[in-house]
Amino acid sequence: MNSLDIFTTGGTIDKVYFDDASEFQVGHPIIENLLHKMNVGFSFKVDQLMRVDSLDMTTEDREHIRQKVFDTDSEHILITHGTDGMVETASCLQGIMGKTIVLTGALQPAAFSENDAVFNIGCAVGGIQTLREGVYIAMNGQIFDADKVQKNRKENRFESI
User: Fold this and answer.
1) What is the DSSP letter of 1?
2) C-alpha to C-alpha distance for 46 and 41, rounded to whole angstroms
3) What is the DSSP string of 90-127?
4) Are 11 and 121 in contact (CB under 8 A)?
5) What is the pLDDT of residues 98-150, one digit of tens each?
6) CB atoms inside a 10 Å sphere around CB 23
7) Dihedral sign from CA coordinates of 47, 52, 53, 58
8) CATH number for the domain that contains residue 15
9) What b/e sequence results for 29-44 when a residue is b if at least 16 CB atoms lie within 10 Å of its CB, and e otherwise?
10) Structural domain of residue 24, as residue ranges?
11) Which of 33, 59, 65, 139 has its CA 20 to 30 A from that of 87?
12) Total domains present in the chain
């Protein structure tokens, strides 16, 4: 992989909480600083497409994401995304030829001391370098085909279907 395009959309991974009443807003994407700190050996570009919770994502938002993925010259695209709407967005990205697309996110905000954000990003970056073209979801230490995964809200994890 020579280059990686990263599109951020918001979601829990970038949430910042302000008080005990769980008031939050989606903050700046954490992934750029994280990858610089990890001293990765590939070039990447981060483009913040939106700052929304995936529960609030619209069909137009998903079409905007699809168009950006279609328009980029990069063959490797990583999308940070809220977990509640991730499978739906992945479905919208099906059929884009010549690209390896991986969506990832977090079940706990990256700002929390105990979170899954760094783990999921690492899994996604490792996966995108070895996967064939297609659409995937990287969560909970696994890479899933985007059309064979669901979020199990009761267990708070992603699972194959």
Assistant:
1) -
2) 16
3) HHHTTT-TT-EEEEE--SS-TTSSS-SHHHHHHHHHHH
4) no
5) 999 999 999 877 666 677 888 999 999 999 999 999 999 999 999 999 999 99
6) 9
7) negative
8) 3.40.50.1170
9) bbbeeebeeeeeeeeb
10) 3-160
11) 33
12) 1
